Amino acid sequence: MTRTLIVANWKMHLNASQASLLLHRLHERIKIYRDIEVVLAPSMLVLQPLSLQIDRRKFRLAAQNAYHKDEGAYTGEVSFTMLQDLVHYVIIGHSERRIYFHEDLDTIRDKVAACVRNGITPILCVGETHEEHHAGETRQVLHDQVVTALSDLTSDEIEDVVIAYEPVWAISTFGGELAKPDDVKKQMTFIRKQVEDLYGKAAAQKIRVLYGGSVDNSIARGYLEIEGCDGVLVGGASLNYHKFSGIVHEAYRLRNEVEDSE
Ligand code: 13P
User: Fold this and answer.
1) Is 60 left (phi over 0), alpha (psi -120 to 50) or beta?
2) Mean pLDDT of all residues in the chain?
3) Is 172 in the pocket of ligand 1 (CB under 6 A)?
4) What per-residue string of b and e applies to 155-173 under the rule 16 or more CB within 10 Å gives b?
5) What distance in Å separates the CA atoms of residue 147 and residue 88, rounded to the nearest whole number?
6) Per-residue pLDDT tens over the stretch 81-120
7) Who contacts 53 (Cβ-Cβ below 8 Å, separation ≥6)?
8) Residue 213 Cβ contacting ligand 1 at under 6 Å
9) Pocket of ligand 1 contains residue 9 by CB under 6 Å
10) How far is the CA of 63 from the centre of ligand 1 (A)?
11) Is the pTM of this model over 0.90?
12) Does the active-site annotation cover 94?
């Protein structure tokens, strides 16, 4: 059985000493859980020092982005090749990269391919904007984002991919609009169906699908309980050690209640 995946996306927050302190606090609160995988995605600059501090039985690292070429004259970029020994995962196609850095479908496809080529697991983010949501275009958007991003992979390679459904309108709403778990479930099923249509049932069952969008410790359970939801991708609440460790504990409780009742 796959482990529940809880990912902290620290976005462009925390310098090296702040990140080190947060890791220390999380280490105090989070035990080694056999059925939970906790992944931290700090800024690029902080990956290296954190990798020396981290207890690898409890935490894994992810980068928030990388460049699709392996090496060359690309001033300012960091490649997947350079991240190989440092991270298990790279977040690709986050809505903030799509919106602020104009990453289009083809760029994201190239990054997913580069990630897999370098032996790193992609966490591919997909999701519709507020306008697309209200225009009834969610399925078309999800279809285009999923199908294009995976198009350079084989079905064997796809099995390892993680897809995070993050509706843009539900990200960092700070008490505002939240996606309803029932609606999230429908979109997650739709995402798996896109994978199944192209790469078969086995691939669709094996890929992991996460939810992200204003998840904190008080509402995490509602999403983690969704059938077919393999975990959550957490932004704002991951900067707070109480809230983030609370999400990990919710995931642990849920797994163990379910297993006890089986
Ligand atoms: P919030 O949890 O702040 O909504 O961020 C979600 C996100 O973008 C994680 O990648």
Assistant:
1) beta
2) 96
3) yes
4) eebbbbbbbbbbbbbbbee
5) 23
6) 999 999 999 999 999 999 999 999 999 999 999 999 999 9
7) 20, 23, 24
8) yes
9) yes
10) 15
11) yes
12) yes
